[in-house]
């Protein structure tokens, strides 16, 4: 497959494919003139890269797991990412519940609602102030 076909099949831009090749994540099977050609197995490799990126792995993390003919999964890193995702899920669930309560709270003033006040205190503890760029 040429680079345009791989780009269409993977949903990635040709510039991304060239970058991945430069980083050693994928390799072309050769060239015909100026066009790169890839073996069909590149799509599976790109799917692995996309999965890693989706869960927040860096390209360097991913490159350490990709072998020329397979993968060597870094189980410790995946456990760490799982713990991070669990934390994010818990935070998002608390936010969802808070929004649901705020949308349906019968109190005329949300600041007078004890449940809303507890949610504000919880949010105050969890939220980190943004750092100034000065």
Annotation keywords:
134 residues; mainly alpha; Multidrug-efflux Transporter Regulator, Chain: A, Domain 2; 4 strands; 60% helix
Provide an overview of this structure.
This protein folds into 2 domains: 3-71, Multidrug-efflux Transporter Regulator, Chain: A, Domain 2; 75-126, no CATH class. The protein has helices at residues 3-10, 14-22, 42-54, 59-65, 75-104, 114-126, and strands spanning 30-32, 35-37, 66-67, 70-71. The mean pLDDT is 87. The strands form 2 sheets. The protein has a two-stranded antiparallel sheet. β3 (66-67) and β4 form a beta hairpin. The protein contains 6 helices and 4 strands, in the order ααββααββαα. The longest helix has 30 residues, at 75-104. By secondary structure, it is mainly α. GO terms for molecular function: DNA binding; DNA-binding transcription factor activity. This is MerR family transcriptional regulator. Pfam families: MerR_1.
Question: What's a quick, concise take on this entry?
Answer:
By secondary structure, the chain is mainly α. The protein has 2 domains: 69 residues, Orthogonal Bundle (Multidrug-efflux Transporter Regulator, Chain: A, Domain 2); 52 residues, no CATH class.
